[in-house]
Amino acid sequence: MSSDDAQILTTLKVLIIGESGVGKSSLLLRFTDNTFDEDMAATIGVDFKVKQLEINDNRVKLAIWDTAGQERFRTLTPGYYRGAQGAILVYDVCNRQSFRQLDRWISELDTFSTKTDPIKMLVGNKIDQKDSREITYDEGDRFARKHSMLFIEASARTCEGVQVAFKELVEKIIETPSLWDKTEASIRPTDNDHSDDAPAGYMEDNNLLLNITSEPTPTRSKLLGKKSVKRKHDTEDEQDSNVVDSNTKKKKQNERVKLDLCQGREMKTSNRSSLFSNNPTIPEIDEKHVETANEEIFGSASSLDKMPVHPHIIGCLKQKFNINRLTNVQEKSIPAILTGEDVIIKSQTGSGKTLAYVIPIIHRIQSIEPLVRRETGPIAIVLVPTKELVQQTYEVFQKVLTSFVRIVCSPLVGGSNRNHEKKRLRRGLNILISTPGRLTDHIENTQSLSFKNIQFLIFDEADKMLDMGFADAIKKIIETIVKHNDDNDKHFQRVLLSATPTSALTNFVDINLNKKSLHIDISEEFNDESAITVPKTLTQMFMIVPSKLRFVTLIAFLLKILQANKKNEAKILLFLATNELVRFHYDLLNTILNGEKDDDMDEQGDLQFGHLLDQPIKLLKLQGDMTHHERTSVFNEFGKLTQGILLCTNVAARGLDLPSVTWILQYHPTSPIDYIHRIGRTARLGSIGCSLIFLLPNEAEYVATLQDKYKMSLKNISPDDVLETLTFSCNKLKQHFETRTVIPRTAEQCASSLHHHFEEYVNGSGERTEEARQAYLSFIRYYASFAREWKYLFHVKNLHRGHVAKSFGLRDLPDESNNHNIKERTGTFASSKIKRKIKSKEDETIDPLDEPLPEPIKSETKSIFDRLPLSNNPKFRPRYRNFSHISEFGSGLEVSTKSHKKKDKVGEFLEKKRERNTSKRLFGRKNVK
């Protein structure tokens, strides 16, 4: 060691960290050599410089480590941080992304640093590029104050602030004696090195030898369906092995174990299956260029003032609805309805169809002589499929009727007090808005209800009402109105509205509407009659995700939406298949995103991390088994929110006008018709909206169906890109072991850590495990209930039961012996208790939930369009309950046939006989009747 070294107060280790391209190497070169290179190459692994400073008449030697900022080098970083007393965090003032990544670097420093609270200096580089600046000085200062850091702005090009940054950092370290020791240098050059610049690849740190390699660690190139590449451990130099004592070896071994865990490796003692192994291959789907049937939303600019209706209605539209011009469907439908003829309207969802019949109905009612009053009775009946749509339509009528208080409107829905509705009917109502079932109930039980003055009968979302099984109720309503009108020799006008006409609807129209009905089709200029119109402002996407990755990918995508939303105006509709699935995911998302836990939650079941969102987001749920009051309350609350997530079944798929919905997420797919109505909840009236549907690899042909038959254009989203979002929350996904805490770094590590916490939470309580089990069984029932025409896409035999169970956080496959409505009792495993051990190359025990996926069941015909029409098939018998009903109202059970009923009666008889025989033996024959 030279004589100069003997006079040095201490040697300090300082790191320069930050994203690639922010100018770390340029700052170091400017500080040590006072030079600047315009063509500075990116650092590979780590670079090293040494410089001496005079601090308060003391000489301090700085060993400055310049680390690589690229993602592929981050698995090496735990070795960089050991023994560092200070760190300079650099960001580019012209690159906001580099500023956002500072949280990750801070958490990495806090995790791997062996010094307590090392001094941090925040440096904003490239302030000479004033025209390209994106981050202000105040932003950097606030961030530094938040994290208790020193702060300065600098320019490696002009040398401004560079020397000051390093000097202030060293002075702060010297003022903190706990970070350094005069008697022992934290870092010193090797004995063979007597210069200021030690070799960049070989340094001695606290008697530990580090062999810093210039090559990056091999990592997994893709997250899905590929095996990881193991990195060879760095070998120790045999000549210097005598320097390392037994305690040092143990410490180094622990560091290596810690590094291995950070790289996503599993301990050999663990039998838990990997989230990224044995996944099915994701098929490549071509994004076909499809000529989508888009219709223009708005008509001419002057259409509102020229509309032939009462001036009070026009004034109300401008004041109450903030409408300055009519939509296309309104401009064409209002004159047609005013003629009094039957009208059939086909237009996309969100195009303003409700006002298209509200305006002419109110105009004609207010013009009736003598004037219509409460005592006149019902004049118009509006039938809609759901309670929520009843409430929404009622509110639209009420707004327009503010100028005509003598006309009374009222909703009639199931779940509300029937006696209160009877009182309103006795007092007199002019416009009735009801579901078919509730109105039929009043026809049968309310004597004061009279239809003698009916002039309008509106069928809104007519195809959905028929699909829900209201055909008999609608038939009875029409027959009652016809009977009353025949007595008075009056004709009533029928108006039918739908976005997706079906064959059942066509038959209904032929029977119940006038053959000379006026047809209004806004997309009639599009040649293909099967095409469904969608808004031009709607962006449709799909993502193919294996079963095991579905939940973590959902979380990552929600975080991606919320992080990209800077104005806190993200309103998301998350569609799930059944009521059980809504309840399960609602509780889970509330816990993971917001950190909300049940009051009776035990410590064992708590998530080890608090929550993923810094600011909580409001979560609501809407499902078919809720009371009318609960559903209305949720509907109104979500409508008032500026940001929130609504988890719902198909009960929210039709007709509902939820303001400012920006995203539609379909976690569980359904029929293409319901898909169309689901995406119609966004991009309404010209606003911008997006939709995403999650698909399994065996469901990939669903995309082709939407493209070929329904002329939908969808973009493919890669789950790899979505999972990268989890790296922004890596500090919150850390795992706690007995002696250490490990923070994941890569997207794969973060996803595995999140799923680990998810499983721990679900299995930490018997109640939550049972909820997950019920949700799993509900999903299997839903999947088995798809109509026969969609079996080639959604066949229950194509599901890997073990992978599906893992997506619910379950570690054992639930028993499906009592799960109804599953004809195909197939699966990889007959019982959850059977666990076969498979010996791999590394002799690891593999969980049976992670066995390879069996070959999918292929339909006899490649597509539904190759089949004969069902109406021409003599063996076809229509089903009265299909998959679209299960999520809202049904239990998912098959309708019992006669043979089933007969078996039930026989079983009941035998059970009663056994009970009687047992009673006779116990109490005697005379005492048993």
Give an overview in words.
The protein is of the alpha/beta class and 929 residues long. The chain has 4 domains: 215 residues, Rossmann fold (3-Layer(aba) Sandwich), CATH 3.40.50.300; 406 residues, P-loop containing nucleotide triphosphate hydrolases (Rossmann fold, 3-Layer(aba) Sandwich), CATH 3.40.50.300; 196 residues, Rossmann fold; 34 residues. It is 34% helix and 14% strand. It has 28 helices and 25 strands. The strands form 5 sheets. A 7-stranded parallel beta sheet has the order 12-13-11-14-15-10-16. It has a 7-stranded parallel beta sheet with strand order 19-20-18-21-22-17-23, with helices on both faces. Strands 2-3-1-4-5-6 form a 6-stranded mixed beta sheet, sandwiched between helices. Helix 6 links the parallel strand 5 and strand 6. Helix 10 packs parallel to helix 11 and helix 19 crosses helix 25. Keywords: ATP-binding, GTP-binding, Helicase, Hydrolase, Lipoprotein, Nucleotide-binding, Prenylation, Protein transport, RNA-binding, Transport. Pfam families: CTE_SPB4, DEAD, Helicase_C, Ras. GO terms for molecular function: ATP binding; G protein activity; GTP binding; RNA binding; RNA helicase activity. This is ATP-dependent RNA helicase. Belongs to the DEAD box helicase family. Belongs to the small GTPase superfamily. Rab family.
Whole-number tally of structural domains:
4
List unreliable stretches of 5+ residues: 1-6, 182-246, 249-273, 525-529, 599-605, 823-846, 859-903
Helix content: 25-40%
CATH architecture of the largest domain: 3-Layer(aba) Sandwich
Rg computed from alpha carbons, rounded to a whole number of angstroms: 35 Å
- Tell me the major beta sheet: 7 strands, parallel
Span of the ends, CA to CA: 109 Å
- Remind me, CATH topology of the largest domain? Rossmann fold
Number of helices: 28
| Overall morphology | elongated
- Please give the order of strands in the largest beta sheet: 12-13-11-14-15-10-16
Strand content: 5-15%
